[in-house]
Every structure is written in structure tokens, then in C-alpha cells.
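As a warm-up, study this chain.
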Amino acid sequence: MTDLKKLAQDVFPDELVTSFPVRLIDLPYGAGKFALITMDNGEDHTKPTTFGPGGLVRLGAALDEVEELAASGAIVAAGVTGKPFVFAVGADLKGVAVIRNRAQALAIGQAGHAAFGRLRSLPVPTFGFYNGVAMGGGVEIGLACTYRTISSAVPALSLPECFLGLVPGWGGCTLLPNLIGPEKAVSVIIENALDQNRQLNGVKAYELGIADVLLDPADFLAESLRWAARVVTGEITVARGDFDRGEGWDRAVAHGRAVADAKVHGASPAPYRALDIIDAARTRDIADGFAREDEALADLIMGDELRSGLYAFDLVQKRAKRPAGAPDRALAREVTKVGVVGAGLMASQLALLFARRLEVPVVLTDIDQERVDKGVAYVHDEIDKLLAKKRLSGDAANRYKALVSGSLSKDAFADADFVIEAVFEEMTVKQQVFAEVEAVVSDECVLATNTSSLSVTEMASKLAHPERVVGFHFFNPVAVLPLLEVVRAEQTDDASLATAFGVAKRLRKTAVLAEDAPAFVVNRILTRFLGEVLAAVDEGTPVEVADKALEPLGLPMSPMVLLELVGPAIAAHVSQTLHTAFPDRFAVSANLERVVKAGKRSFLTWDSGAPEVDPEVAALLEVGSSPLTAEQVRERALAALAQEIRLMLDEGVVQAAQDIDLCMITGAAWPFHLGGITPYLDRAGVAEKVTGKRFLDPGVASVFV
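Now compare it with the structure written out below.
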């Protein structure tokens, strides 16, 4: 096995090394002494505790001490817990990203198993006290213990590895199905991970059986030690479940494969490797399972999918928090009241978001009282739903409802600091709205537009103060998709832009700066992408063939399902905007226009339970006689994406390729295992073939050997 100290020194000298101090505690009820290891990297909760090579060396030293205490009879039990608010969040991903060869990758897997295995082999009972956030290896060190307690205040517990392109490789794939059963383990390891890394809270983790007891956070450690004492003295006996290791196990694994197929379409190996290990865990011993985990980790760490996943993770964790090109945040003005022009579905969603996140008065306006009342009622109804789900207290629900009101007059915006319009996507309408708003608001009130494709500069061109206008493009559904494209028009000043970024942060959105170019970022890319697929259909490619052509990428949905989500009418409108700007690259599909004219919402029907081409749509289509194969459609679409992204970067629409990827991940749910879009285009060789160069340097979102 590779020397961990040497690995830490040679490969990861900048590791934030976690310490594992051991202290002896007298258990209640005269049960004896307890050796408690506290995992702590010396930072506050904003820098969660991780395991790197250096940390694993220190963990080994702590276990040396505990083993001596256990062997001498000085302790009756041992356990691990974390610093305040954090248990541990697993392997240090920065260290994983710098591993250069398979031997080093294999060593990391083996080292984790060796360290955690020493907990399993202690001659005294061991306890994991999940006091706070626990992910990946943090969950797994708890699984290595004999028993586990968990705080009801734990906000997040997960095994996110398959989301990133790994497997839970320090015991998770082997131990968890034997603890809670294969069905629940598949839910945690596969379903939750591939569902945008969905988290469990403390209550849910307890209900699944990951922890043996749920305790109040107020006195969690003391209560955990009291519970441990009762276990040690025999007062409490913890029963373990017995599971169907035949057809039931088969069904769980088959369900996991179906979920993986639906989510990644075979494009990422990680979930399938995890399922293989889970499958073997029904009959193989623990040593065999751990060896399988080691091999899977070594293979996956040296794979491009993981490097892309780590790149994507870094984007959403770091770049998203420091938007590239944003002005000094000190320039931002205070926002104490918000106006929303329009009271339709999008406007109402925005009003709800502003009220909940900013906690300031929000006023909706529209052209008649019925629309205004409907918009306010929507907000109130959504708040009531949150109250019913216990996601809000009664006091909070009443407070939010009181913040949202409606008015027929834009005079209600007189004291607003930020007004956003969400009206019909027509330039003259939006210009008129802004003129009416400008007449009543202060000179410093920021005017924002939720336009998806129109020129913000043109929208502001007739105002006395065009410098206060910004694009503020949300993605639907507003409450779900994190991206917010903040658009700088030609005359937007830094104070208005800084205010917009400040508001975006308070809304808890991922804000990316975009210059005022047609359709900005996501819609421009998706329209070019869809345009090539629709062009293939227009030329004679069967809809089914064109729709499935991109499956090898493992995208979250097929082009036709995406078109249904966007809406054919909106897609056609954006296509027309881009065709006007770039007629040589963007066409307006005649067949798409026929579908819109016929009032159809999709090319597909779901009557059979699965997507099929709608016969009524098929009858509308007029196609050529030059069909393409799925591979040809895919090559055509990817080449178009590479060309368009290169042009966008050359035009300065965003600061860098990383912003393109961040937008696609957070605004279009582009898979983490692709790293967005540019790493895939680099890896597939499309970027160099089409544009003559890569988007990212070698070793960024890829293995650099």
C-alpha cells in the first residue's frame, strides 16, 4: 500500500488536515469510561471537516490510542462525533482532483477502509454520534461503528458520490444495504444522488434506519452518551432487520438500474458500479465488498466523468458564490420594497420568492382587478401549502401573506427600490411598462426585466435613466432552478448592477453576469441545440430518431421533452429573436410554427405512460427526404453547440467557459458528470474539431496524466 504520509506530502501538501483528539469520558449509570474521538479541522462550520491523506494518518494515530485503551480494559466503549454543526463530509475532493495515477487512487480507497475498519475491529462497542452535516465518508465512518445516534437538527445527510461520478467507496455500498436493506440503500445511494444530490435530514435518516435513535439537538452529546451507557449495560438492545436476499434484493437492484438508465442513460459508469457492489453485498463477505469498492474507486478516480463532476461541484460551490465580473458589492443600494409588474404565473412566483427571501413589502400590478386578485391569491395559496407541509410556521405564513399586496396603479411603486417586469414578451409592451414605472419611482430605483431573449439595451433606450435597467432572467420553475442571469445593458451603471447582484444573493440564486446579447446564455445555447434537432426532423429524420439521438450524453431530458417543458410557442418566439440576430445559424422551423398554430403543447403524447409522437402532430409535419441517423443528428447538434459557445466566448457574453457551464448546470440541469457542456465537448474532441482548440486547459474537468 502506498505510504499515506508520502502521498500527503507529494500529492496534497495544501490539505486542511483534520485532527482527531481523544478524550476519556465517564459514562452515566456507572457504565465505565468512553473514548470519544472528535473530528475537527480547526475551522468553523463554513469549512466542513474532511478526510485527506494527512487526516487519515492522524485518524490512525487516534485509533492507536483507542486500541491501547480498549486492550488494557481502560474503556468499555468508543465513538466518534464532529465539531459544532458538522459531523464530517467525507474525502477531501480537492485531494481527489490532484491524484495522478491509479496506484494513488487505489491507496486512497484502501486507506479509508483500513482506518474505518479499525473501528469495526475494536474489542468494545463503537458509536457514531451524527451531530451535524454528514456526507460521503462522514456517513461511512458512522456506518463502521456498531451503533449510531443522530440529532433531529441534522440538516443534511447523504452519500452523494454517484452524483459526482464516484461510488460510496469507504464502506457505503457494502455496509448500508446490510444495515437498512437493499431497497432503502438503493434509494439513498442511487436515487437521491442522481436526483440532484437530494439530502436526508436527521429525522428521515433515523426513519430509514441509518441511525438507531433520534435525539434532541439541545443536549445531543450528553443524551448520546446516556443512550450509549444504557446499551453498554445491556438495558437497551438494538435489533437489526433481516432482509430478503433473493427476489427482493433482485428487485431493488433492478429498480436502481432503471433509475440510473433514466437519469444518465449509461453515460456515467458510477451508479452502475455502485449497483454491482450492492448486488454482491447480499452474499459476499465484507472484505470482498471493500475490495470491490477499492477497485471501483481507483477506476473512477482516474476517469474523466469524476473530474468533470468535481469541476461542476467546484463551480456551484465556489464560482457561484463569487460571480465573475460583478461590481463591488459595496456599491449595492438597500432594497426595502419590491414592485412586480404583472400578476400572471411567472410574476406571482417572483412575488412569492421576493417576499420569502427579502422579507420586504411586495406589490403586484396588472391591467384589471381580477388579474391582480388572482396573482395575490396564488401567492397566498402557495404559502398555505408550505404551512400545511410544515415548511413554515403559522407566524411566518401570516407575515409573508401580509407582505404581498396588489394594486391597479403603478403609483404603488413610488417608494419601491426595485421593480421587475414580467409581462408579455413584446418590446413595445415592455418599453411602455418601464416608461410608466419610471414616471413614479425614484431616480435610483432599479428597473429589472425578466425577459428571456429581448434586448435590455433597447428596452431601456427611451428612458430618462437607462443606466438603472438590468436584465434579471429567472428560470421556470422559479422555486426550483437556481440560475439567475443578471444582464448588463450598454448603459447599466455599476450601482444598479451591484444592487441586482445583492438582491440575487438574498434570493439565494446562482447569479451569472451576462452581457446584453440575444437570448443571453442558456436560451441561446438550448435554442441552437433544439434548432439542429428540429432541422433534422424538417429534413426527414423521424421524430423518434432525432429525439433519442442525444441519449448517450445522459441529459436530464430528451430534446422533445425539453421543448414540451419550454413550450413550443416560447421556443418559436426565441428562435425568431435569434434568427433576426443571427440568420445564418438560427432558423425558425416551419414545422414548429405549424405545431404552435395548431395549439399543440408538445410533439409528444404520454397517453400510454411513455412518450410517443403525437399522431395529430405527425399529421401536421411536412418533411424532406434526407433523413439522418441518430449518430449524425448527435454530431450535428454537438458541432453546433461547440460553434455557438466559441462565438459567445469571443463576443464576451460571459467572462469564461466556466460561466457557460455554471449556467447550463444550474439553469438547464445539465448533468454534473458532464461538468456542464464544455468539458464534454473537449473530451469528445468536438471542440478542437469544430473550433480548433479546447474550451478548458488539459487537466481541468479531465484527467491530466
